[in-house]
Amino acid sequence: MLLLLAEYLQQFYKGFAVFQYLTLRGILGVLTALALSLWLGPWMIRTLQIRQIGQAVRNDGPQSHLSKSGTPTMGGALILSAITISTLLWADLSNRYVWVVLGVTLLFGGIGWVDDYRKVIEKNSRGLPSRWKYFWQSVFGIGAAVFLYMTAQTPIETTLILPLLKNIEIPLGIFFVVLTYFVIVGSSNAVNLTDGLDGLAIMPTVMVGSGLGIFCYLSGNARFAEYLLIPYVPGAGELIVFCGALIGAGLGFLWFNTYPAQVFMGDVGALALGAALGTIAVIVRQEIVLFIMGGVFVMETLSVMIQVASFKLTGRRVFRMAPIHHHFELKGWPEPRVIVRFWIITVILVLIGLATLKLR
């Protein structure tokens, strides 16, 4: 939106051409979303408190969590608002990738909103039934996958890239839709499972979003892509604005979500942010790198799968409680220790993911 205004004003003053630079608009996206989050956060928290939209806490979980009961939830709406406004202000709105990622983010956020609404407003402990949650996730995930497949302009946009192996590329054809579906829906649920402690999910999301933003910028630049032997995806660079907005909104939310949290993200934020990360990774053809950088999300998901499978097959639990962050809490780790150590792990994994840019 502001990009169009800047283009118009260039005829009067050439200095407005500076807004053509992706890096500047990416930084402005960060700062705008951060400012919006910090400005709107207190108002949103008060509104949630007045409407008594508070988190329900499981009685079978760590006892330290009982004090969190009633803490305002559905704060993910703050993140989505800041991301949306910042992206619309600074991104090139003629870019199809911007609309795909923004659309997926808001649609998955809508699923989470319905789930949260039924839990905290209607007092329905089941929320949105799992079959309907996965149904709508599948509809939106497949829809995005089909759109990306049908609008692909080059074969590389539907090819599986293997990090570290520069000469191996696997054309996926129609199986691109299947892979994209699993990446989007899987990452959405993985972030949702991780969102169980104060700040545990949002900071890794910001870190992974930062890493993917670098991939977007490089993949959208023909020279950098050729030099680094990564896929050149025309238009992908514009997603750095969305990634910047995600970073700013996430950091702004963390201001209120850090231990002890004043507000929780809820499914409205977790499902949306996970889907956004998955969609971006698909566009820049870095699904495997997402798997690496989002290792904490993968670990949380696997812990739930292992726990459920073990209990059904043997009647025994592998972990004291799943997801795995609760296991460490029940072993005696204070909540801030679990959170910070998971952050540290994510920093390391994101750096490893970025290292694949040169190790080819």
Automatic annotation (TrEMBL):
Reactions performed catalytically: UDP-N-acetyl-alpha-D-muramoyl-L-alanyl-gamma-D-glutamyl-meso-2,6-diaminopimeloyl-D-alanyl-D-alanine + di-trans,octa-cis-undecaprenyl phosphate = di-trans,octa-cis-undecaprenyl diphospho-N-acetyl-alpha-D-muramoyl-L-alanyl-D-glutamyl-meso-2,6-diaminopimeloyl-D-alanyl-D-alanine + UMP
Q: Enumerate the PROSITE patterns for this protein.
A: MRAY_1 (PS01347), MRAY_2 (PS01348)
One Pfam family named in its UniProt record = MraY_sig1
Q: Which cofactor does it need?
A: Mg(2+)
Provide the species name: Pseudomonas indica
Q: What is this protein called?
A: Phospho-N-acetylmuramoyl-pentapeptide-transferase
One GO BP annotation is: peptidoglycan biosynthetic process
Annotated membrane topology is:
Multi-pass membrane protein
Q: What Enzyme Commission number(s) apply to this enzyme? A: 2.7.8.13
KW Transferase (keyword) present = yes
Q: Which family does it belong to?
A: Belongs to the glycosyltransferase 4 family. MraY subfamily.
Q: Where does the UniProt entry say this protein principally localizes?
A: membrane
* GO molecular function (one): UDP-N-acetylmuramoyl-L-alanyl-D-glutamyl-meso-2,6-diaminopimelyl-D-alanyl-D-alanine:undecaprenyl-phosphate transferase activity
Check the record and name the InterPro entries matching this protein. Glycosyl_transferase_4 (IPR000715), PNAcMuramoyl-5peptid_Trfase (IPR003524), PNAcMuramoyl-5peptid_Trfase_CS (IPR018480)
Q: Which residues cross the membrane?
A: 20-41, 73-91, 97-114, 134-152, 172-193, 200-220, 232-256, 263-284, 290-311, 338-357
Compartment annotation: Cell membrane; Membrane
